[in-house]
Amino acid sequence: MKTRVIHWFKFASPQNFYVLAGRMWPWFAGLAAVLTLVGLWISFFVAPVDAQQGQGYRIIFVHVPASQMSMFIYLVMAAWAGIGLAFNTRLSGMMASALAPTGALFAFLSLITGSLWGKPMWGTWWVWDARLTSELILLFLYLGFLALQSSIDDPRRADKACAVLALVGAVNVPIIYFSVIWWNTLHQGASVSMKGSSMASTMLAGMLIMVLAFWMYAIAIALLRVRNIILDRERHTDWVKHAVA
Amino acid sequence: MNTTIPSIGLGRVLLSVLKREISLGLRQKGEVLTPLVFFMVIASLFPLGVGAESNLLLRMAPGVLWVSALLAAMLSLQRMFATDHADGSLEQMVLSPTPLGLLVLAKALAHFLLSGLPLVLIAPVLGLQFGLDTRSLGILMLSLLLGTPTLSLIGSIGAALTLGVRGAGVLLSLLILPLYIPVLIFGAGAVEADAAGLGIGGHLSLLAALLVLSLFFSPLATAAALRISLE
Description:
The structure holds 2 protein chains of 2 kinds. Chain A is an all-alpha fold. Chain A has one domain (about 25-230). Helix content of chain A is about 75%, strand content about 0%. Chain A has helices spanning about 15-45, 60-85, 90-120, 130-150, 155-185, 200-235, 240-245. Chain A is globular and about 60 Å long. Chain B has one domain (about 15-230). Chain B has helices at about 10-25, 30-50, 55-75, 80-85, 90-95, 100-130, 135-160, 170-195, 200-230. The chains are: A mainly alpha, B mainly alpha. At the A-B interface, helix 4 and helix 5 of A face helix 8 and helix 9 of B.
């Protein structure tokens, strides 16, 4: 019997990955659409009204997944950056730069939804709470990454410089997070937290489905964006001319 | 061909790079004085902006002085590698048999001695204007002394990454300022904690920990970034 061996490393070539990503992204996009619809339906119509927070709590169905993804994507981006530096693979840098805008978007979304939730609950758009502050700093780190990338013309050099920055940032994220927590405890008492209300099971289900939907969206959009990056950078090659023609 | 390079001890290399950087810096007096004047101007703007109420100023003093020091230290970062890059000596350093990390470390130390240390020395004068007492001034100096070398070391990564990049000045601040936040928190926090009657041991220990961490890691990151910038 002959066993079929898949040569995984062949997908490290942008040309092959372009095809693979083209086959994969519609699946992830479809899953994202279905899960978002189901998740939003549960969160708007099935999940009960919160006893303390009323209808306003429903924004957490977007807020929690967005902030989780914003942190996780930074780690994935740093991992791709590290792989790119270590093995000198072109695709890794492209993946890191495909993920960065999505991560920045999620960080921004998480701040916006957080402040929309904070206005009715805390009575203010913004508090210098440890979580809010560190999310804001995370957004700054993303913006620094994007700014450095756009200011270097040579894409290979931009990838490597951004990789060093992403790794330095990833080392600093926990340091910044804990220093902000200690700063916060020194300056002010803990803000209103969600711990008071235990979560109903439908709420939890809605949240988990929304988390999954955000995952699928992030994967789909990253694959789609990496396809564009590959086309842009390989535009002088023959296979791109064939692929686009 | 059998060319033997006379081996020089790493300590001597470190010292000679340090001496070179300092004598180059001292010849351009403006480079040392401008950040210092900038520091004083920024710190003087705050009372004009928020009003001269002495209680308010006293409470704000550690934070204001630390933020001003942060900005002033950043002002001179860009020149850490730019002049050497322009005249080609940076490439010689990259090609030399001495580990690049060590040369970078010497440059960061020189940056601290030329721009961080003067800030430490002038800070008490500005602190007096904000009404800090002698004890707080001492702690402010101590925290600056522990914190500003970290600023130079972390800053060297940003300076290397933005070398020869367009819009390097603004970009450098965007990259580096978020990374400065822990130093700011513990530096200003030490003075505030003492004023609140809490111990300062924790803050100073954390500042020293940040210094040790950056002393080890940042020359490596800076050397990698320099190689990328020069290739």
